[in-house]
DNA sequence: ATGTGC
């Protein structure tokens, strides 16, 4: 471990005040011995840098999938006081409301075994890849609808079931959305991309529930062993990316205007209540809503495929839950034994609200929020539940997935897409992608092992394992 | 992540 970092428990580490100059609170992160081997020094420094920001509460946090990001580490969680604190695009990331949702089908493993046509049909139904274009009739009005009302807009337009909304974090949209704070350029990029999957680690996967760790929670969530599920992982595409780019530029100015001293200019930020901070928050919320609408439209396309191939009505394919893992939100938390509203940044971290929280579906109140953790291509995904431990220790947050250990360019040089596809095929996993590079970029070994990341959050008690899902087919960008 | 790299 880096000099100066202190082990506080088997899986808990502290970066003391003074590790970098100007820290207002300590840093804290979760890590096992195995993950320690691939920990980047730069990511720990970034965690400490975040602790210098005005109004930060308690500590600068990181989950076991911590890695180096823009300004803030990916896997980072930071909460700020609403009057003294700041908001920063670096604390959310470029892919605003990148997130993941899980659909359960009434099918069993035998129904989909060898059914390459299921994956082929999904690949036809969902626009996939870097420049993927929408199959919707998108215009300025549709875009506004998606940005203002998110998944609700999509459901009202016929892309989904009313019951889907209560199964989304925030019920599928943030009211704070401000379309006026979204630039013309961002809008231009958003219009043709409504309902598209994108590229990189984004995917649509057919999975089978292979192991249940918590029968009571699995039953309450609607999951059973052997059940076929469909997982959708995507974000806000070029729109969110442009919003982030635009507002970083604006907030670099505000940093000077409000005399905020930063150890790294990538932490560009503004007071939460300032005009610039409010504009970023509004544009970020609009992008988050666009991403929720995206996942909702893709959900509808996936249900159509199951209906066509297996004659299953949409109503028999419920949404288990939809989580955001790149977003900032105003939430109520207990700080120094007092309840208060704070601004929580989660960047590559998932909300994991525990039992009794008013923001989770009423029928799951005694269990905790479903948490969905996608694996990397060809590796298992996990369903967990939120805990009281998360409420006490991490502002109701847990990990988001695997986290890269190798850059895209490295991966391309080292690994052939064709060989990976063949190796996955031998494991019974059928992959469809627009080109070979899309596969080599996202090869299983360019990621940290998701099972180890999940084990750490489970044992640390900031969420608890419910089920493991193994992939049988995947479409990716 | 991204009309992929000032």
- Main beta sheet: 8 strands, mixed
What is the gyration radius calculated from CA atoms?
Answer: 21 Å
CATH class: Alpha Beta
**Contiguous uncertain segments of 5+ residues:** none
Percentage beta strand: 15-25%
Computed structural class: alpha+beta
Name given to the CATH architecture:
Alpha-Beta Complex
CATH superfamily: tRNA-splicing ligase RtcB
- What is the overall silhouette? globular
**Structure summary, number of beta strands:** 19
Q: What distance lies between the first and last C-alpha atoms, to the nearest angstrom?
A: 36 Å
Q: What would the CATH topology be? A: tRNA-splicing ligase RtcB
Please describe the topology of this protein.
Layout: E1 6-7, E2 12-15, E3 27-30, H1 33-36, H2 41-50, E4 60-67, E5 74-81, E6 86-87, E7 99-108, H3 109-112, H4 116-125, H5 140-156, H6 184-190, E8 203-212, H7 215-221, E9 227-234, H8 237-257, E10 270-271, H9 275-310, E11 319-324, E12 326-335, E13 338-347, E14 350-351, E15 370-373, E16 381-385, H10 388-393, E17 397-398, H11 408-414, H12 417-426, E18 430-432, H13 436-440, H14 450-460, E19 464-476
Helix pairs in contact: 4-9, 5-9, 6-8, 8-9
This protein binds one DNA strand of 6 nucleotides through residues 93-96, 98, 130-131, 189, 198-202, 235-238, 240-242, 244-245, 326, 408-409.
